[in-house]
Amino acid sequence: MPQKIYDVLVAGSGPSGGTLAAHLAHLGVDVAVVEGGPVVDTRTAFNTHAMPFDFPNRHIPTMKPGVPGFDSERSRGVGGKSLTWNAVAWRYSHRDFKGRSIDGAGEDWPIDYPDLAPYYDQVEREVGVCGNRDGLPDLPDGIFLPPVPMKCSDKIVQRGAAKLGINVIHVRKSTLSVARGARPACHFCGNCMAGCDVVAKYNSADVHLKPALKTGKLEVFPNSVVREVIVSEENRATGARFLHRETLAEGELRARCVVVSCACVQSVALLLMSKSSRYPSGLANSSGELGRNFIPHFTGGVQCFLTELIGKPAANDEGFLDHAYVPSFMHQRKRDYARSFGIQFNYQNRRSVGWARAMPGFGKAYKQSIKERYPAFLTFSPYGEMLPNKQSYIDLDYGKRDRFGLPLARRQYVWGENDRKIFHDMTRWSVEILRSAGAEIQSVSAEPSTNHELGGCRMGTDPRTSVVNAGCRTHDVPNLYVVDGSVFPSASEKNPTHTMMALAARAADHIADRLRKGEM
Length: 520
Hints:
- The protein has one domain (5-516): FAD/NAD(P)-binding domain (3-Layer(bba) Sandwich), CATH 3.50.50.60.
- Strands 3, 8, 9, 10, 11, 12, 15 and 16 form an 8-stranded antiparallel beta sheet that branches.
- By secondary structure, it is an alpha+beta fold.
- The protein has 10 helices and 17 strands.
- It has helices at 15-26, 94-97, 99-103, 113-127, 152-162, 204-213, 264-273, 363-373, 417-436, 497-516, and strands at 5-11, 31-34, 169-170, 218-221, 224-231, 237-244, 250-260, 297-299, 302-306, 324-326, 341-345, 377-384, 393-401, 407-412, 439-444, 449-451, 480-482.
């Protein structure tokens, strides 16, 4: 291992870590990125266009057999979750940042929309976000490439929703609708969450890290599973210790500043593992709030058939999965709960037709009924904002360890009364919209499930009730930062990754400025 002392060490290379590291490198900062998984050739590693019958037992693995890196929560690959995300890119609004002040529930952020707006601009210019400028106060417009067309099924839902006074808009995604540089436009293969083998969809490895490597200011250390952030007797973060994913050999890197960007739960787990006599309950945890305020999004699901399309000829209309979206509309309506929900829909594809198992029949008639209903199938997935509660947190299970000997992260969550009210209402509205669109309802989720993990390292101004400040720097250790979804004080109902990337770009400016001033 090199004995060099870097300016900044970043643990994690996903959307947050990749954005942060690249921005720092372009600002002239010496950066080391430590990633638990291998380098991934995004052009060849994904089975993007394969079908179930191409694999044993008709089971599609995330990546081709023999390609390592996606075998646990702690070993991803250079690019992290950006390799297999759905790329939905919403800006948070003033209402999202100040939900407690406006709705009297949840938690305010110590920053507001104007603080992040220029960084949303910056990220959108870099990665390319397609979408429409809709002029909605709770869904700020940005710098967009042209939106992709809605599908026929989207238009049917849009007409049904309009009868209820509800908008259906073009989705906004970090996916190219027109070619830019070496990245072609999306070719609509419908498998965004299986990876993108042409990089039309953003991933941090190709879009942020690869260009940053050319600056000579960035080094990436793959296959390095970080197990501890090192803190000196002077209470300064000085680097990280890690284990090689394949050989289990121990390694160590040194830096003037350390940034934890491992994705929400794993960032919390790393800080909890980095215990010492100064921090016996976890690094930067003098408040006792590390791991607390876990606020994943909750979702449900309604599956249906649009009767207008039953029996129509099957068409290749998978596109880049969901092309339309139902934005939050409850803020302006009378309700007995705080916060709101939005609805993603129409992101099924022919590689996953699990609904067919629930259909009655056998033999030739059964096959014919599936063919008739295939063009009409639709799935609705509303997402609600969970409010923080004391029963929902992240901790470590020392009785269960991974193959590196590290304790597994454990998620504990309890749905509060407000969460339950949102879940029931978003389910009811989903059914009403679909029925208004002439749908035949097949199934409705009875219980919420989690998605988009957030919280655990809450951002705030009071060191007694939060872990990091408005710049993502920990209150306890002056050169230790946490930059990912774990710092969110509240969740909104919107997909969070775009906001995580804007936070990372903002944190990069803060870190570079402090380095210039000699404050690290």
